[in-house]
Amino acid sequence: MAARTKLIADSGSTKTEWALLGDHEPGIYNTQGVSPYFQTAEDVRRILEVELIPQMPAGTVIDEIYFYGTGLSQQKNIQLVTNCLRAVWPAAAVDVNHDLMGAARALCGRTPGIASILGTGSNSCYFDGENIIKNNPGLGYILGDEGSGAYLGRKVLQYYLYNSFDEELMMRFDMKYNTNKDEILENVYRKPLANRYLSTFSTFLSENRGHFLVENILEDGLNDFFFNHLYKYRESWTTALHFTGGIAWHFQDILKELCELYELPIGKILRTPMEGLIDYHHR
After folding, report:
1. What does the mean pLDDT of the chain come to?
2. What pTM did the predictor assign?
3. Cys bridge to 34: 6, 11, 50, 178, which one at CB 3.0-4.6 A?
C-alpha cells in the first residue's frame, strides 16, 4: 500500500519551509512567509499557487497537510489559513497549528522539554510530550520578542542612530547598509512588516563577532530572553532546553554559555524545525 502523501509547512514571518513526504525522499521547497496578521486570504492563495505549486512535481496529490505558522494562536487566523489550503487542495485533510507546537514537536518529539523559537520573532513553552502546558505570553516585536532577530536588529539600529558604535563599526555599518535616519524611520514606522526589516540588521552581528560592542548586544539580548521567559518555567531546571531558529543557530555558542552560567540543561539546537518535523510525521 502506497504511503499517504503529506505536505508539512513551517512558516515564519519571513519565509515558509515546505516538505513533501511520500514514497520518495522528502522534497524541500521555500516560499515567502505566511503571516495572517499582515496578509489577506488572497495573498496566502497567491503564495500557494504562484510560489509553491510550481516547485512541486506535476500532478502531485496531497493526502494530508500539517501547517505550523506564526500568528496562529487566534481561531480567525487558523480559519483563514485552513480555508486557503482547502481551496487549493480540497481533498486533503488539513491540520493548522501555531509555530510553537511545530517547534515543540520538532525539538522534543514525544518527550517533555522546554522548546524555544529564536528567529525573526521569539517564543517559548513547556511541552509535556503531547501538549503545550505552559507558554509565557508573547508581546510581539514592539513590546517583546526578546532575543529575536527583530529585537537584536532594533538594538543594532539604536546603537547606530545614537552614535554608540565606535568609528570602526559605524564605517562597517555604512558600507553594508548605505542608509540613513530618515530611511530607517520610514521603514520602521510607516512601511509594513517592520519586524522583518528590523531582523535584517541582526546579520550585522554575525558578521562582526568578536567586537566587544557586538558581543554586548548579543549577550544582553539573549540574556533578556532567558530572564523574561525561560526563568518563568520551573521545569527549566529539570528538563532539557531546546532551541530552533536562525538566531538560535548562529549564536548557539552564547546560548550554551548562558545555560552553563545558569546551570540549565541544554538540549537540541536546530536551524529550522523541519528536520524534526519530518521525523515526527514520517510514520
Report:
1. 92
2. 0.85
3. 11
